[in-house]
């Protein structure tokens, strides 16, 4: 069964648009690189009314629960950690299996 992973970020006040765009572009570059990654969408919230300060999000679909570990440990994904730390003051992750 596919797995949907949703990650929300509160970006730091001092994070520049250049830093945010580099993180977005780096995340999009994971498409077609990480085995089992079926889709990935990332961007800013289009409505902050109920976002509780989380102003950027990623939604990705993985082929199966077994691909969670593959994604988490993939070198291309790990290279994004420093970029994420530079722009994000907090994050929230949620995963669910789909039918």
Automatic annotation (TrEMBL):
InterPro entries per record: Dabb (IPR013097), Dimeric_a/b-barrel (IPR011008), HS1/DABB1-like (IPR044662)
SMART domains: Dabb
Gene3D superfamilies attached to this UniProt entry: 3.30.70.100
Domain named Stress-response A/B barrel: residues: 3-96
SUPFAM superfamilies per record: Dimeric alpha+beta barrel
PANTHER family: PTHR33178, STRESS-RESPONSE A_B BARREL DOMAIN-CONTAINING PROTEIN
Assembly notes: Homodimer.
Protein name: Stress responsive A/B barrel domain protein
């Amino acid at each position: 069964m596919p797995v949907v992973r949703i990650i929300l970020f509160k970006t730091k006040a001092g994070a520049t648009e250049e830093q945010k765009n580099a993180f977005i572009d780096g995340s999009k570059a994971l498409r077609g690189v990480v085995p089992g990654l079926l889709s990935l969408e990332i961007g800013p919230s289009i409505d902050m009314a109920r976002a509780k300060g989380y102003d950027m999000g990623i939604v990705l679909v993985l082929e199966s629960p077994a691909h969670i570990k593959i994604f988490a440990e993939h070198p291309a994904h790990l290279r994004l950690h420093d970029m994420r730390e530079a722009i994000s003051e907090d994050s929230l992750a949620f995963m669910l299996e789909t039918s």
